[in-house]
Amino acid sequence: QYEQQMMLQKMDTTVSMEEITEYYDNHSETLNLGSDIVKALFIKVPADAPNNNRLIQWLRNGSQSAMQELEAYCYQFAVKYDDFGEEWVDLNFLMRELPENVSRISLLRNNSVVESSDDYFHYIIQVRDHRLRGTRTPLEYSREDIRNIIINNRKIEFLQELEKGVYNEALRENRFKIF
Question: Is the model's pTM score more than 0.90?
C-alpha cells in the first residue's frame, strides 16, 4: 500500500510523443505484427435491401458527397457498418464477419473493394491500407502498448529507488536488525 501511494503521489505517468517515438525507433526488432492488420471500410446489408448495387458506385466515386450518401444509406439499411479508415484492425476480426468464399489475399490489396453475397446478406469491404504479419508494427498501432511499456519501466525503476531509499535510511538511522 505504501508503494502504491508513493507511486500515485510522486511517479510521473505522462508519456510524450517523443518518448514513444524514441522507444519505437530503438526497439524495432521487438515490434512485429502477430497478425495481418488493415485500415478498411466494412458494410453488411441484407440481400434484399433496396439499391444495394449503389454502394459500390459510392465507394468508387470517393467524393465527400458520395461518402455521405453511402453513410446515410448504411445507417438506414446496413446490419453492420464500420469505417476503420484511420484505425488499424486485425484482419481476423473482419474475416469472421465475411462469408467463407472471401479470400484473405483478395483483401490484402490497397484500395481494393471486395464484394460478396450469401443467401441473406451482401458484404462489401474496402481495404485502404494493410500490413502483413511479421512486419514492423505501424507506430499508431503500437502507440498505446509502447506507452504502457514506458510507464511499467518507470514503475520498476521507481520501486527499486524507493526500496533503496528505505534501506539506506534504515542503515543511516540504525533502524533494523539482522537475524
Answer: no
